[in-house]
Design brief:
Length: 261
């Protein structure tokens, strides 16, 4: 079994044991909130795009909450892809309940059906998605083939620099010394852990998550190699999910990358 299949089992286990009530408010928030489930940086980046009448997709869509939120910007159709079958089934049910023109498919992102080639005006990756892929060039080649000419890749994520910092809860974290770096920026070996689903579940997984660090150069070069033109890069000193203790200290903690086919 390859690492993607191991991660599939791990995510399905985590979602199966999600905390009671997690995202049960999704249908209501889609009706009442402005772009719910999105950090301010992602909201701003999406609002700068013209999505009216467009066809948009989210790769590694989790339970679909961000894709369905983005539909508020006037997209005609939304497509979500994720490797976890139970997450995709949940997302499809919510979309139908909310009356949204969204379709969700369970698949390894690297194996997205060629029938989607040239279909999308936007492909979106949100926080924590690309870390599951060792080969970003292969990943962005799938993005490129699925985008229409002129289509946009939008990536909002943790900054690679954050991988150098100890995260609250780790043994190496010291709240009295927040400027201490403990990991290499150029780490090549994978990370192995059992709690990557911790934001939605207190359950300790029996299946292991495998993830990878990527430098900013690796991200940009992979996009360019896949035939995408870099159209913008924004960096922020604000965390987007795991280490807000470092906010405002002058470290790059998150970023948004826009690239165009």
């Amino acid at each position: 079994m390859n690492q993607h299949q191991n991660n599939k089992k791990a995510w399905e286990e985590a979602f199966e044991h999600r905390n009671e009530g997690w995202c049960d408010d999704l249908p209501a928030r889609l009706r009442t909130d402005d772009l719910p489930y999105m950090n301010p940086m992602l909201k701003e980046a999406l609002q700068m795009l013209d999505l009216q009448g467009k066809t948009i997709a989210q790769f590694c869509c989790n339970n679909g909450r961000e894709l369905m939120s983005a539909m508020q910007l006037g997209a005609a159709a939304g497509y979500g892809f994720d490797i976890a079958e139970n997450m995709v089934a949940f997302a499809q049910g919510i979309a139908e309940q909310a009356g949204l023109p969204c379709s969700f498919t369970a698949t390894d992102i690297l194996d997205i059906d060629p029938g989607y080639n040239g279909r999308f005006d936007l492909v979106l990756f949100t926080v924590g998605a690309i870390t599951w892929f060792e080969d970003l060039t292969a990943l962005f080649q799938v993005v490129s083939r699925c985008l229409k000419p002129g289509g946009v890749l939008l990536l909002n994520d943790y900054h690679p620099f954050l991988g150098m910092l100890p995260i609250p809860g780790e043994d190496s974290y010291d709240e009295t010394d927040l400027h201490r770096l403990v990991y290499s920026y150029f780490r090549s070996e994978p990370w192995y852990e059992k709690d990557s689903g911790g934001y939605m579940a207190d359950h300790e997984n029996s299946n292991t998550f495998t993830s990878y660090s990527h430098t900013m150069a690796a991200i940009i070069n992979a996009a360019v190699t896949a035939g995408l033109q870099i159209a913008g890069l924004q960096e922020y000193d604000q965390d987007v999910g795991i280490a807000d203790a470092y906010n405002g200290l002058g470290f790059p903690l998150s970023f948004t990358l826009k690239a165009v086919k």
